[in-house]
Amino acid sequence: MDARYVVIVVLAGISALGVIRLVARHGRLAEQSALAYEYLSKFNTFANSYTSSFDAQLYFWLVSKSDKIQSQMGFCGIADYRPPFANYIMRNYQILVNTLPQMRTRKAMADNVAMCEDALIRYIGLIDDSLAYSASRLKNPLVWLQEGARLILAIPIITLQWVGLISPTKVDAVTLNPLFRVFSGIVLLLGLVASLLTIILGWEKLIELL
C-alpha cells in the first residue's frame, strides 16, 4: 500500500479514537448535569415541605445520592462555615451532606438550606458551561486528532485504570494536566508535519530529505 494511504488511514484511526474519547467524556458530563438538575428539583421540593410534612422516601433518595453529588460538585459544594453563635470557622465544610441530617431533625437553619440550593445552582452553571464547551469540541476535527493522540500517549495510565489501580477521574486529571497537554501537542505537531510531508512528497522522498 502507498505510504500516503497508510498515513491517511493512521490519521483517520487516531481521529476516530479522539471522537470516542470526546463522546465518552461528553456523556459523563451529560449524566452529571441530569443528576444535578434532578437533585436540585427534588431538594427544593423537600425543602419546601419538610418542616410540616416530612417525605421519608424523598429524604432517602436525597441522602442516598448526596455523597455522589457532593463529590461531583467539588469546590462548589464546600465553604468556610461558621455555625450560629460560634467563635470558630469550619474549613472545607461540605454543605449538602451536613445539612440534610439537620433537615431530618428539623434543626437546619434557613441559611444552610439556602446555601445548599445556591451551591447546586452554581454547580449546574459550571456543568452547563462544560457541556457547551464539550459540544463545540465534538465538532472540531483538529480536536479529534488531538484527543486521539493524547489517548495513545496515555495508554500506560489507562492500563493502570483497567487493572483498578487508579480511577477514571485520575486518568482525566493526568491527561488534562497542562504539562501532558504541551507534551502531547508537540508530539502531535511533529506527527502532523511528518504526515503532511509524507502525503505531499511520498515516503521515499521524505526519507531522502532526512
Keywords, please?
elongated; mainly alpha; two-stranded antiparallel sheet; single chain; 210 residues
Give the topology.
Elements: H1 3-47, H2 56-73, E1 78-81, E2 90-94, H3 95-104, H4 110-138, H5 141-153, H6 155-162, H7 168-175, H8 178-201, H9 203-209
Antiparallel strand pairs: 1-2
Helix pairs in contact: 1-2, 1-4, 1-5, 1-8, 2-3, 3-4, 5-8, 8-9
- Computed structural class: mainly alpha
- The coarse silhouette is elongated
Report the mean per-residue pLDDT as an integer.
Answer: 83
List low-pLDDT spans: none
Largest sheet: 2 strands, antiparallel
CA-CA gap between termini: 22 Å
Strand arrangement, largest sheet? 1-2
Radius of gyration: 24 Å
Helix content: over 70%
Q: Order of SSEs, N→C?
A: HHEEHHHHHHH
Question: Mind explaining what this structure looks like?
Answer:
This protein has 210 residues and is mainly alpha-helical. It has one domain (3-209). Helices cover 77% and strands 4% of the residues. A two-stranded antiparallel ribbon has the order 1-2.
Short description:
It contains nine helices and two strands.
